[in-house]
Amino acid sequence: MKTIFQKRRGISLKGKTLFDNLFRNGRFCRGRNISVKYLLSRDSSFASKGVVCISSSLGKSVVRNRFRRICRSLLYSVYPNVRHGYHFAILPKREFFDYGHKERERDFLGLFERAGLLL
Q1: Which pTM value belongs to this model?
Q2: Contact 107/33 with Cβ under 8 angstroms?
């Protein structure tokens, strides 16, 4: 179990300067009910790092955490196919969580393809 946690831990984007740089200079790609903000990092040889941003308008903390877990599980399934060297933020809307798992996964993959983040 410890190795799984360590693998997933390396995916997270951390640091105020990285966040500010991503949201100030990053490119934006909008899907039907989910969007992604992405930026090629300075050192493109490292693995990509991402974050799930859930708005406080989506509900109380229990609901937001559930939505965050859903998005993170989709990210973990897609992550082996993501290009190296990118920083990205996933920005889902409320309607994204009304769909079933297959439709959410299809939208997620389509968005990453359109943004050019998949291999």
Answers
A1: 0.84
A2: yes
